Amino acid sequence: MDRIAKLIMAAIFGMSSIRAVVATAARTRCAIDARGFQNVHNNIAFVSSASSALPMREQHDARPVVTRAQHQLTSFSLDTSRRQFHSSTQLLMAKRKKNGGRTKKTEKAPSKRSIKLRKLAQLDSEDDDDDDFDGILDFEDAEQDESAVVTPFATEYHAPVMFKECIDALLQQGVFGEMMDDKLERWRKKKSIAEAKLKKAGLLDDEVENEEASNSAETSESIRRPRLFVDGTLGGGGHSQALLEQLSPGDILIGCDQDSEAISTASARLSKYLGTSEYIVEKNGELTCGWEEGRPMFIPVQSNFRNLVDVLSTIRHPTSGKLLLGKRLKKQDSESEEELEFPKGVNGMLLDLGVSSHQINTGERGFAFMKDGPLDMRMDSNSTTAAVSSLTAADICNEFDEATLISLLRTYGDEPRARRIASAIIESRPLHTTTDLVHAINTVTPTFARQKRAGLIATSARVFQALRIVVNEEDGALTEVLERVAPWALSRSGSHHSNVGKNGSDGNDGILAVLSYHSMEDKMAKRVIRDGSVDLVGRRGRGGSLFERDLFGNIIQNEGDEEGSHVPFEPLGKPQKATDEEVAINSRARSATLRVGIRI
Question: Nearest CA to 47 among 68, 69, 65, 62?
Fold first, then answer.
């Protein structure tokens, strides 16, 4: 009843006297406690009759007077027990009550030690041959052999990042297999619509349609055919070993790296799959080719991945002697070429960009700012061939002018204090070691800062990254491998709707997987997979794309365009990041981003 009395009084006096209404409601409640419901009715009637006879000013002054004793008799409080809430509000209140006042039930992130214990427990539970296990784990041995036990396929040389996601993408299995099935279904629908339109217009012959049907039948059989994969950044061989263990007999994996030490280490590690060492320029010791029938084959190649077009066109099968890819000529020009082992192209290519853990941990290479060593940073510094890069990081720090240093620090390192750091480098010349460069950076950078990005460690990492990219020309090499090598080598998908009415379309789906670690590499991979070009300055179309698109996002092709002149890739899913468990084990995986594209 007190709520009804408050509403009536609010209507009488208006919102301007809401405080008086609340006080009157409190007094009315006192009257309810003292005289019951009848007195409330009389009070309401008295107020309404008196207010109707008096002016508004006098109505405000003619309020009933209550003594302090009567006011302190009971306190005014809103009764929320009978309030009606919305259903979603009730659910939210129930969750908060259940979770101790929090809307969501938050769990603490697992610590590194708990993850190690969980992994060790899983490994011990799966080991059925160990009968002497007494339930006690040796933590010291586990910490000493952390990379080998906790992280699969990891060695002292390198720990592979996101190896499961990369292998699933290359083999089109797991989550990527489901995404591929959905994409193929959408392509099939678009292709059937395009075929119906061409057939209605009389542009699709029955012979072409029958040939496409035969190609689709061959596609189902091509699953059992040998496959060819390329690991463009071999490193320690972690990704290659994970892939070889899931390949079928007859499949071939080509591993490429320009570092002679890396390719020798990986070849020795994968010796049971090694088919030939003919394409290794510098061999650090003798390598045993342990490949046997019934196993997939591994072929190491010492070269930069920007030169893979020339290298892959000359590689032959170790047993049959046939060229694996050849020059990848068009169908009308390939009649004079000899028979190829994989005429349709490469089934998958992996690019794990950046620098390996072994190169960072080796102070003599000059990649690590936390270890003293010469300012070298050349990927092929161990090589004795004439193709070794002559430019070192010391040459850049001691010879480049201030404007050039500022430009490369901003472009390749995203360094906000590029001008101050460039001035500090010039003032600290000559610089010969990594410690000299860190001291120069420390003169204008605080050792510790509130913002993690502004501290000495983060700033030194960005400066060393920029110098490494310039020394090894990583931006130019990445542009060539994304725009030229990958479209040339990968097999074009015969299921794509753009291949309607074209003869000789490939049946395999070539997969490109790019694992990047900073924004420049990730942007380059995104642009090539989405728009077909890295350099999009001054271009027209979506996002500055190289190709002009219509209202629905389809690429507009002119009559004079050559076959295959459209964008070479189509993205497969969204970018993938490393899981929290992997980041807890391997901290270098925190900035990794995996992008996957399909050759169309």
Answer: 62
